[in-house]
Design a protein that fits this description.
Blueprint lengths: L2 E2 L5 E8 L7 H17 L4 E3 L17 H21 L2 E10 L2 E10 L2 E7 L11 H4 L10 E4 L2 E4 L4 E5 L2 E10 L1 H4 L4 H7 L4 E6 L7 H15 L3 E6 L16 E4 L2 E5 L8 E8 H10 L1 H5 L7 E5 L5 E2 L16 H26 L4 E4 L4 H17 L6 E5 L7 H14 L2 E4 L3 H11 L8 H21 L3 E4 L3 H6 L12 E2 L6 H14 L3 H11 L20 H5 L2 H13 L4 H11 L6 H17 L1 H4 L28 H14 L1
Parallel strand pairs: 2-3, 3-4, 9-16, 10-11, 11-12, 18-19, 18-21, 19-20, 21-22
Antiparallel strand pairs: 1-17, 2-15, 4-5, 5-6, 7-8, 9-10, 12-13, 13-14
Helix pairs in contact: 1-2, 9-10, 9-15, 10-11, 10-15, 11-16, 12-13, 15-16, 18-20, 19-20, 20-22
């Protein structure tokens, strides 16, 4: 599947740690050429190289040699010719002489021209660094331009470079120590609109420095709501007193997308498809960023950045954005989420002064998680678990497996068990309203859900307690809950937890929070298909109503939810990313089908979210009308469906 990156708001960027030799400009130039060819073979036309890479950073007093400076200038023009031939954009490090001073500079080269030169501001001159011996700071500039070969080339720290066909791709440049300073220049560039920040570096390796460097790059990208591409010199630099590892990274809004291996003499390159659209979306909704004032006036220099298409993105598209791929991170995340849920409920219990709660337990995942949260919240407050009234309410669709698991778990947790069958009450209700029990429609289903809610509310009143809600974030997004039925409670502990994460949480509880028979029951519940059990079981007593057969896989819906609400992507981009994330798992027409259902349900079911009960926010996606999500209940979905219509026309 070939994908035009610009259509997704993506730009492919490479950071290079080239093989080089100290003061051997011809050799270094050749290695840069080879790196450009490798980048082009991987569909990358924008490459960033390290600080002083044409000469090497560790030349020492050789920087005073006029031969070195003149040959560097010639090499820059050779690179300019290369960019015209290869249709590439390069940012390289070089020593540049101007006004009787020498500057440590980043040179922006594109389309056969040297478009701008950015000098380094902060020159380290302590411990192993002696840059002030050779270079002047950008603060010492006397002119705003260089005059080379009859051209006036912009020179200064006030330069930003804008891609012609992607105006939001605005690039700012700083050099090594600049980002280690108290007030990095990149902060001002970001508030002036730069979404891509480059750092040309020659950072020697020391014990523990790799972790600090990675954290610095991550945090600066997060603070600036930007891409931060950091290209660092490799072990070809002089090892007289120091060792350079070639640790280059690309981070986007706090996440490292790619990085090179260290301590290798061969040229290392890391590529990433950075999401310019995502950064623009984040900035527009961030009031702190919007309020930032940039006093520096920048010169904007346009450049051509040809679009590329590729069948494979240089970017991980997580199929489960709510569930970390690493086991250690999953464990940490589950612990944090469970702590948030239990503390939120405990605070509500403390505030109301109640010592009892009612909860409907079906033997399914959601009600199981809510029951576990309630048990630990009671423990946290020193309350007797017998104050939790766990009620099973078997109905027309209840199966023996879920009923057995629900009863077993209730007894194993030491909470109060109560069973109230809803069959007679619902049949009486059908009789009262004149509805046939044989018609298995929405009335048949919702009457059961509302009867169960009435039982829970009244049972809670009997013990002067509150009703704990069980519905999860994914159900709220889809409106897969009965209005004023399971939609309603007095505190909704799962409201911030997506369906794909619920199963992991219950499994984690079986390993980390609960032991013995309870743990075994929890693991069996994890294997149970998701179902509201409102329709009669199959002939063999198996669950007769599988939720995902009706509304689609929660795996896809959680993917859609994250990308639409958290990242604000349009359906076309979500569809394309889903095809990459679920390649070989779901066909294109399946993805389109369920994406359409998601959009329709997300818009049409907002009225249920507009009157949600209280519940704790868990992650970056939340749908509380009092918190993160304020959407009119009568908003039209037409614009989103029109885009899906176009996609279906193309696929058809």
């Amino acid at each position: 599947m070939e994908t035009a990156l610009s259509a997704l708001g993506l730009v492919r960027i490479g950071v290079v740690s080239p093989d080089l030799r100290v003061a051997d400009i011809d050799y270094n130039l050749e290695r840069i050429w080879l790196a450009v060819d490798e980048g082009l073979s991987r569909n990358c036309r924008f490459l960033v190289f390290p600080e002083l890479c044409l000469t090497s950073y560790s030349c020492g007093d050789l920087f005073f040699q006029s031969l070195l400076i003149e040959r560097t200038r010639e090499a820059l023009w050779q690179l300019a010719d290369l960019t015209a031939e290869k249709e590439a954009t390069l940012v390289v490090g070089a020593p540049i002489a101007q006004g009787g001073r020498l500057f440590n500079c980043a040179v922006f080269i594109s389309g056969g021209r040297i478009l701008g030169v950015v000098p380094k501001t902060y020159l380290p001159n302590t411990q192993e660094f002696y840059e002030e011996r050779w270079f002047s700071s950008a603060r010492d500039l006397t002119e705003q331009d260089l005059e080379w070969r009859g051209e006036r080339i912009p020179f200064g720290t006030d330069l930003l470079f804008r891609a012609d066909d992607m105006p939001d791709c605005l690039i700012g440049i700083e050099i090594c120590e600049d980002v280690w300073s108290v007030n990095p220049p990149s902060g001002g560039m970001a508030t002036a609109g730069a979404t891509v920040l480059l750092n040309l570096s020659a950072s020697p390796e020391l014990l523990g420095k790799m972790e600090y460097r990675r954290a610095l790059v991550q945090s600066q990208s997060a603070r600036c709501l930007a891409v931060y591409a950091y290209a660092s010199a490799g072990p070809g630099e002089s090892s007289t007193d120091l060792v350079y590892s070639g640790h280059s990274l690309i981070a986007e809004n706090g996440v490292v997308l790619a990085e090179t291996d260290r301590f290798l003499f061969a040229t290392q390159m890391a590529l990433a498809d950075v999401d310019i659209e995502h950064l623009g979306n984040e900035r527009r909704k961030n009031s702190t960023f919007a309020a930032s004032v940039q006093k520096t006036s920048f010169r904007i220099i346009p450049f051509a950045l040809p679009d590329v298409s590729d069948g494979k993105l240089c970017r991980v598209i997580p199929a489960t954005p709510f569930v970390p791929s690493e086991e250690d991170e999953q464990t940490y995340r589950c612990h944090e989420i469970f702590s948030l849920q239990t503390t939120g409920l405990a605070k509500r219990l403390r505030h109301t002064g109640v010592k009892n709660a009612a909860i409907g337990v079906s033997g399914g995942l959601d009600s199981t998680l809510a029951l576990l949260v309630a048990a630990k919240a009671f423990d946290k407050l020193g309350l007797d678990r017998k104050g939790i009234i766990a009620i099973t309410m078997p109905g027309f669709g209840t199966t023996s497996r879920t009923r057995t698991n629900a009863e077993a778990l209730i007894r194993q947790l030491g909470v109060t068990f109560k069973e109230v069958s809803i069959d007679k009450a619902v049949r009486q209700h059908f009789k009262d309203i004149g509805h046939s029990e044989e018609v298995h429609d929405i009335v048949f289903e919702n009457a059961q859900a509302r009867e169960r809610t009435q039982i829970l509310m009244d049972a809670a009143n009997q013990v002067h307690g509150l009703v704990i809600g069980t519905g999860d974030l994914s159900e709220l997004a889809l409106g897969w809950c009965t209005y004023n039925g399971d939609h309603m409670s007095m505190y909704a502990v799962n409201a911030g937890v997506p369906k794909t994460l619920v199963r992991y949480l219950v499994a984690w509880c079986a390993e980390a929070e609960f032991t013995g028979e309870a743990a075994a029951t929890l693991l069996d519940i994890c294997k149970t298909p998701v179902s509201p059990e409102l329709l009669p079981p199959g002939a063999g007593g198996e669950i007769g109503q599988i939720t995902e057969d009706q509304i689609g896989p929660y795996l896809l819906h959680d993917f859609f939810l994250y990308n639409m609400v958290r990242l604000q992507y349009a359906p076309a981009k979500i569809y394309c990313l889903a095809r990459h994330a679920f390649a070989g798992q779901y066909a294109a027409d399946e993805i389109l089908k369920w994406l359409r259902i998601f959009c329709c349900r997300f818009f049409s079911q907002q009225f249920k979210r507009s009157c949600l009960p209280d519940g704790p926010k868990i992650g970056s996606v939340a749908l509380s009308p009092r918190g993160d999500w304020r959407m009119p209940s009568d908003a039209s979905v037409a614009l989103w469906l029109a885009e899906l219509d176009k996609l279906e026309g193309k696929e058809g």
